[in-house]
Amino acid sequence: MQVRDWFVERQPEFAQWRQDLHAHPELGFQEHRTAEQVAAKLRHWGLEVHEGIGGTGVVAVLPGKRPGNRRIGLRADMDALPMQEKTTLPYRSVHDGAFHGCGHDGHTATLLAVALHLSQNRDFAGTVNFIFQPAEETLAGGAAMIADGLFKRFPCDEIYGLHNNPMLGKGRVAVREGALLAACDGFTIRVHGVGCHGGMPQQGNDPVVIASQLVGMLQTVVSRSLDPLVAGVVSVGMMHGGSAPNVIPDMMELRGTVRTMSVSARETALRRMREICEGLALANATRIDCEFGLGCPPTINAPGPAATVAAAAARVVGAESVDTRITPLMASEDFSYLLQECPGAYFFVGQDGPFCHHPEFDFDDDILPTGAAVFVEIVRDRLG
After folding, report:
1. Which CATH number belongs to the domain containing residue 285 in this structure?
2. How many structural domains compose the chain?
3. Is 357 annotated as a binding residue?
4. Which end of the chain is more exposed for a tag (fewer CB within 10 A), N or C?
5. Known binder of ligand: residue 117?
C-alpha cells in the first residue's frame, strides 16, 4: 500500500477533525481549545506531549523503534484570521470575527494525521518533533516558540512545513530552493505639521501635502534603491488625518507594509524609508516619525531539504506534478524564523477555490492525504 492510500482510507475521520477546528477558530495566542484538542489526541496515541510552548504552542516527541540520532521537525500553524466568514458551510465559524480563512485548520489536521500514522508505524531511526505553532497570522508565534526554548528543548537537524495554495492547482506540490516567500515589515509613519484654516494655508505647515509627497517618494525605494532583479514592494494601505474639510490638520498618519525577497534587500528598503522620511522632514521644516513593527524575514529554503521535499512529493503525486521552479510569492510566513535557526524547507500543496484570506475560502479536505503523505515520505527519507 502506498502511504497516501493509508490517509485516503481514513480521510473522512481527518475531515471531521478539520471541520471541527474550522467551526471553532481561535486567534493568535488564543488557541486554547485547539491546543487542548491537539494535545489530547497526541497523548492518546502515546506521544510525549509538551504544552504552553511560546504561549499556546504544542510540541509532541515521537522516537522511532530503531536507534538513531537524527531529529526532524514537522510544523503546522493553528491560528485563525480576525475576519468574518461568508461561506454557507454546515461547519462555518461559530465565532463572529474569527475565521479559518487561510487553512490553518487543514494544516493542523494534516499534521495530526501524520502523527497518528507514525505512532502506528515507528520503523524509523531517530526522532520526529511535531510542532503545532500559535499566532502565525501576526508573525509572532514562531519567534515566541523559539524564545521559549523550542530548539534547545526539542533540537531539530531539519524542519519542514507546508501550506495550501489555491493558485497551484489541486493535485500538485511545489517547492523551490532559496526564497519562497517575502520578508514583511509593517510601518507607521506620522507626518507632523501645523494646523490652520483651510483658506489660509500660509499660516500652517500642511502635513497632507507632505504625506502625499511621501507616498510617491516611497515608491522609489523599490524602483531606485533595489536591484531591478530583486523583488520588493512598498504599499501604503492607510492614510488618516483631519476632522473637517475646511481645516488643515496638524498630523497625518500613514500605515502599510514593505516586502522584500532577501535579507540584504530588506535592510536596504528599511534604511531608505527612514532616510526618505528624514530628508522630506528637513525639506519641509517639520518632523516625520517612521516606526517599523514586528515583521519577519524572507522564507528561505535550504538546498538539501528543498530537494528532499521534491523527491518525497514525486513519490506521492508523481514527478510531473511537482513544481521545483515555482515563482516566489510576496506573501509572508513566520516559519521563516524557524528556518533561520534550523535548515529546512517550506512547500505548497495545491487546491482549487478562492485564495487564502478570501471570506469564502475553505481548506479542501481532499488534499489532506497528499500533504500528510509528503510529510511521511520526508521522515522515511531522512530517518529511514
Report:
1. 3.30.70.360
2. 2
3. yes
4. N
5. no
